[in-house]
Specification:
The protein is of the alpha+beta class. A hairpin with a 2-residue loop joins strand 9 and strand 10. Helix 1 runs parallel beside helix 6 and helix 4 crosses helix 5. The chain starts with 11 loop residues before the first helix and ends in a 5-residue tail after the last strand. The N terminus is likely disordered.
Length: 416
């Protein structure tokens, strides 16, 4: 075997700025029910068609009043108001509230016309037809105004935003039934390697490896709503890979080749990709650890990603390279990975300068602080993929972090 080498190496930032610039969103739009829209990317701006909540509502149980009628009220000298009526949740008040009147109101109920504040129940006493108010309130106190949540015409969903549960809440509240979304991406997955066998193969030799990568990728991407097909297993044969690539490109928006991404005499990924479309391979190798032997190509406009065969490198590369590509393909405007927070390191972590380093960690809480315990970092250790809560990201320009330092934390499998 010749010397192992990587051509067209890129930093992760180059992948995000240069390669992803070449990836064009599919821009295929369909109209669907809001009930089916979770996880889709909106293909339109959606304005609110009404104010929300749409009426002035009480934030507490108490009495709706005119604020000026409570001026100077105290325990010693309460303001005495006439009890007018009761307002329950879901019903409209019987009539406007008059001067020196108070109406019992439940949390979430609609304020009567004329009322501009609510006195909390604990600051009142009722005696038959009268209500004593022992604390003054200001105009708007304990009141949620009719447009405090959403104003008529305000954008509640922006084109290019992925629909989450919070968006569903707004759309259901506002009575929106249908919306335009970008079609979900179709991904073809090709597994490669003479040593690879199906995961449930019982008669494998001791030197063969069960295919965990492509099946894990299929399950994970399906859980995120992508359309996935495991095309099949390709032996270390360039002609076979070339044919599978060409067939997959007819049926899918993006192709993933699992394994065969390092440079060796039996790895034909780059050659097969360059034969399958233009411009071919853009980068072969990314300055990240784990995940360096990742291949990025563009074949007649379709992204093709060669992921490493090592399960740990495969996982990190899928999370930080493949997923942003698929998200941009679906028209999402905010497609790059974001940390969910900063965690404090329980011990020192070393890194190799010149590469971004992703270290698997397990989280724990101590003294009201989230800490990260780094796990063994050898990429051959697949078991701690199951134990890890996620990874911390070390920039390429540092040699490591010390115990007590803060680091960016990313979940491995969430994706959004």
């Amino acid at each position: 075997m010749g010397e192992m080498r990587f051509l067209k190496l890129a930093t992760l930032q180059q992948v995000y700025s240069e390669y992803l610039r070449l990836v064009n969103p599919l821009d295929r739009v369909e109209q669907i029910s809001v009930l089916e829209s979770l996880g889709f990317v909106s293909a339109e701006d959606i304005p609110a068609r009404q104010d929300l909540p749409g009426f002035n509502k009480s934030l507490v149980d108490g009495y709706a009043v005119r604020a000026k009628d409570t001026t100077g009220a105290s325990t010693s000298f309460p303001a005495v108001l006439h009890f007018a009526f009761e307002v329950k949740v879901g019903e409209e008040p019987k009539r406007p509230l008059g001067q020196n009147e108070a109406a019992w109101i439940a949390t979430g109920a609609m304020l009567p016309i004329g009322a501009d504040a609510v006195v909390m129940a604990e600051h009142t006493q009722r005696f038959g037809e009268y209500v004593e108010v022992m604390k003054p309130v200001a105009v708007g106190e304990n009141v949620f105004k009719k447009d405090d949540d959403v104003k008529l015409g305000q954008l509640i969903v922006t084109k290019g935003v992925r629909i989450g549960p919070g968006h569903l809440q707004l759309m259901f509240q506002l009575g929106i039934q249908r919306l335009k979304v970008f079609r979900r991406v179709s991904v073809g997955v090709i597994s490669t390697g003479d040593e690879i066998v199906e995961p449930f193969e019982q008669n494998k030799s001791i030197a063969q490896v069960r295919d965990s990568n492509s099946y894990t990728l299929e399950c994970w991407l399906k859980s995120l709503g992508f359309r996935i097909e495991r095309v099949g297993l390709c032996r270390d044969d360039e002609e076979m890979l070339f044919k599978m690539l060409k067939d997959s490109m007819k049926n899918h928006d993006a192709i993933v080749i699992v394994g065969g991404s390092s440079i060796g005499t039996r790895d034909f990924t780059e050659s097969a990709m360059n034969r399958s479309g233009k411009p071919g391979v853009i980068f072969h190798g990314i300055l990240m650890q784990p995940g360096k032997p990742t291949v990025l190509g563009l074949l007649d406009g379709k992204p093709v990603v060669g992921l490493p065969g090592n399960p740990v490198s495969f996982t990190v590369s899928a999370r930080f390279v493949l997923l942003p590509i698929l998200r941009k393909l679906e028209g999402e405007i905010d497609f790059l990975p974001k940390p969910v927070g900063m965690v404090k390191l329980a011990r020192n972590v070393s890194s190799r300068q010149g590469r971004e380093h992703f270290v698997r960690v397990r989280l724990f809480v101590r003294d009201a602080q989230v800490w990260a315990e780094p796990l063994e970092s050898e990429t051959a250790q697949v078991s701690n993929l199951a134990m890890a809560d996620g990874v911390i990201r070390l920039p390429a320009n540092i040699e490591g972090l010390y115990a007590g330092d803060f680091a960016e934390f990313y979940p491995l499998w969430s994706g959004w």
